Amino acid sequence: MKITVLTVNLHKGFGFFNRRFILHELREAVRAVSADVVFLQEVLGEHELHATRIPSWPRTPHYEFLADSLWSDFAYGRNAVYPQGHHGNALLSKFAITHHTNHDVSIEGPERRGMLHSVLRLADGRPLHAICVHLGLRESHRQRQVQRLCQLIDGIPGDEPVIVAGDFNDWRQRAHHMLSRCAGLAEVFVKAYGAAARTFPARLPLLALDRIYVRGATVQHPIVLPRRPWSHLSDHAPLAAEISL
Questions:
Q1: Based on the structure, what is the number of domains in the chain?
Q2: Cβ atoms of residues 244 and 2 within 8 Å
Q3: Can you spell out the DSSP letters for 87-155?
Q4: Can you give the residue range of the structural domain that contains 116?
Q5: pLDDT tens digits, residue range 39-95?
Q6: What is the domain-level CATH number for residue 96?
Q7: Among positive and negative, which fits the CA dihedral 62, 64, 68, 70?
Q8: The whole model's pTM is what?
Q9: What is the pLDDT of residues 158-177, one digit of tens each?
């Protein structure tokens, strides 16, 4: 069974330098990929101030606005809460989401980070575990968060496929070895090309911050997405792949 996955950091629906609200353009770009499962980071669930100031602000939470009629199921994990609202990770799925849990992996300090674990029911009835992550900016925080991810995956039966995708902020690329050793995860682009895809900054990618890891997948094919319009829609370039389960 083949499925297409996409991961993208939405930058809260604003373009580079936060100058323009571009969620409607992002929705069209995400829809154009037509992925079966979409992993989203920095998704605004609510922002009362923006809602009163921006005429095109959706009446529904951003993840629901993006799902529209193309993705029947969606899940949201709230990570950061502030007076005006909150944001976090989200998952859009063409398969039924049987249940989901948001794991708070924040360490000390103001950074709020999470891992959204959703269990999908595939067309053949098998479960698929989809974990959307957004890890910290500090190396010491990321190491502890990767360990938490390993513990989470260790509790998933070995015969059930797992996809982990999102913004790892792992600019030193130390997570590959840790996740391979402790969780049996393989990164799609590393396996195909020998190196992770560079995704940040989107207009001139230098750092490989975003990843798609799999376990229990027999074949993985990275999908090359066009530079436009993505280079002007977020500070992160998206990643997509076709995965055989």
A1: 1
A2: yes
A3: EEEEEEESSEEEEEEEEE---SSS---EEEEEEEE-TTS-EEEEEEEE--SSHHHHHHHHHHHHHHHHT
A4: 2-244
A5: 999 999 999 989 999 999 999 999 999 998 899 999 999 998 889 989 999 999 999
A6: 3.60.10.10
A7: positive
A8: 0.96
A9: 999 999 999 999 999 999 99
